[in-house]
Each structure stands twice: as structure tokens, then as C-alpha cells.
Amino acid sequence: MKHSTALLATWVTLRILLVLNWIFGGLIFVLLALSMFGLYDLQMPSAVQSWLTKHSNSQQSGAYIGVAVMGLLSALICGPCITAPLVAALVFIGETGSALRGGLALFGLGLGMGVPLLIVGTSAGRFLPRAGAWMNAVKHVFGVVMLGLAIWFMSRVIPGALTLALWASLAIVSGIYLGALEPLHVHAPHTGWRTLWKGLGLLALLYGLIMLVGAATGGDDPFRPLSHFASSSASSAGAPGAAPTANALPFKRIKSVADLDREIAAAGGKPVMLDFAADWCVACKELDHDTYTDPTVQAALKGAVLLQADVTANDDDDKALYSRFGIFGPPSVMFFGRDGKELTAYRVVGFLGPADFLKRVQAVMAATQ
Q1: What's the pTM value of the predicted model, to 2 decimals?
Q2: Which whole number is the average pLDDT over 217-234?
Q3: What digits encode the pLDDT tens for the residues 240-249?
Q4: 84 exposed, middle or buried (CB, 10 Å; 0-12, 13-18, 19+)?
Q5: CATH class name, domain 248-367
Q6: Which tens digit of pLDDT belongs to each residue from 255-282?
Q7: Which of 11, 137, 186, 365 meets the CB 3.0–4.6 Å disulfide criterion with 328?
Q8: 3-state SS, residue 40
Q9: With contact defined as beta carbons under 8 Å apart, do 271 and 304 qualify?
Q10: Is 192:232 a contact under the CB 8 Å cutoff?
Q11: Domain ranges for the chain
């Protein structure tokens, strides 16, 4: 018992640290985005830059070693231009934990920096674009991307409606920045480009307002901000035998072991699926949005009793459910046969995509015939 309690305490501590990590990662992206908008600069101290410039200029041109040293020192001197994207890439790599993805990301970043320099160098500067306002526009685009990454990080630990509101705010502000609310003068220079940016700004502004309405009414999906209205209409219609929709599975919530035993006893010989979920569980949200909305998965589960244990509070009832199955938290999915006993061979721990989850459900249904 003490061993199980210690493991549970360790698991809870790791979950808290993971949540703090996501929050910290989101804040880092916000700070990096602000630097791209010019609120402050991330760069090496001026004394170090002067020293690097002096030694870079002293290298002999035409020599391979001199060129390599000049390139290395130039990369350090030009740090402010790449610091924010590089730190953002490193943070993203650290969060994903994939060495292969990290190596490919840094390799792609290196190609993105090196290939243009090779083209400019071999063309003797003929393809070198002139400095201008477009450079600030590129920085602002990267700033918007980093804000989007910050929202993506924070979406793992904040409510879905608040996440949708943040996406709406980003779209609305971006639309206004593109000139959605500015008057369009027909005789102004570059009218074609201004018209294009204004049109894109109006689309972003309109979509942002739609997402804002969805967030205010309880929506949480930025790709389908108003889908919950269709869900409510379908629920109110209550048409028996209706085909499965792209909404989440109709789970019945349970809280305690007694609730679970009662629902299994009342299943009437039907197979039962129990899903453990929590608001702070990222994989649980992926199951909700990717797997449980799949029509084939919904059709396969049509004859089963669907139960869900919300363990967000992690209270005594939740811990009792953990102990019942020997698990330490979500996402976990258990299947029960017609005799009310768990089919342990088909237990799901972690995220499964629609295709793999469908195979598991089909195997359960075949075993309970």
C-alpha cells in the first residue's frame, strides 16, 4: 500500500512538473514573439560583437580557413536575427523529446540560413534583395507564428473555450494589422498588393469573430468553432437510430467505484467501455478530437455502454478507481465483457489513432459475441 501511494505521489508530482513545463514553454514563445515585434532585442553584448567584428575583418580573404572563421563569426554577430527562431526551435524540440525530429528541424533551419547565402554569394550579389520594410514584415510573421505556438502549448493546460478565445484574438489582431479596418484608396500606390492584404485581413478578422462567438458559447475547436451548435441540435432532435456524427462519443460520467459497479450491472449483458479522462490530459484531448469523433469508431461502439471517469480533481474517489485497475492516471481505456469482467488483453493505455483504436474495438466486439 505504501509502495502504491509513493508511486501515485511520484506520478502526481511529474504531472505537475509537466503542466508547469507547458506553461513555461508558452511564456517563452510569448517573450520571443514580443522581440520579433520590436519591443526589445535579443542580442549579444555590444563589446562581444565589436570583438567578433574586429577578428572577422582581420581574416584573410580567399583562404578556406579564413572564410570558415568569417562565417562562424558572422553567425555570432548576426545573432539577433536568428536568436528568437533558434530558441523557439530548441524549445519545441525539448517539448517533443524526439532526437530525429530535433536533428531534422535544426538541419532545416541551417539550410534555410545557408542556402540563401550560397545563392547570393555565387551570384555576386545580383539576387540580393534590398533592405526595406519587408524585413520587418517577415519578423512580424514569425512573431505571429510564435504566438500561435504559445497558444498551442498553453492549450494543454487551459480550458478549451479560453484556448479558442486566444486563437480568436490572434486572428482578429492579425486581420487588423493586415489592414482589414483601413480604408482602401483606389489611387494609392501598390493598390493590388494593398487590396490582397486587406482581403486576407478581412478573412482573418471574420474568422476570428466566428471563433470568438464559438468561445463565448462554449466551443473549443478552432477548426470547427460552431460545431457544438450542430451537436446541440442533434441532441435536442433525439432521432433514434441516427447515424453517428462527427461529435464526441456520448459518454455517461461516473465518479466512484460504486458508480462503475452499478453501471456495469445495469448494462444488461452489453459490452462496456470505460474511459479515464482529465482536463489536463493532452492525450485525452487527442482521443476526444481525433479518435472518438471518427464515424467508424462510433459505429463500432454503437452496441456498447460508454462510461467515462473524469479524474481531473485527483481526489479519493479518483484514486480508488486507479487502485481498482492498477493504473496511475489517464489516458486509459478498459473494456468489459457481457459478464461484467474486464477484458485485460484489450486495455488501451495512452493515445491510439482512429485506425488502431477501431481494430481494438472490433476485437473486443468479436470476443464478446
Answers
A1: 0.56
A2: 73
A3: 443 334 457 8
A4: buried
A5: alpha beta
A6: 999 999 999 999 888 999 999 988 777 7
A7: 11
A8: coil
A9: yes
A10: no
A11: 2-157, 160-228, 248-367
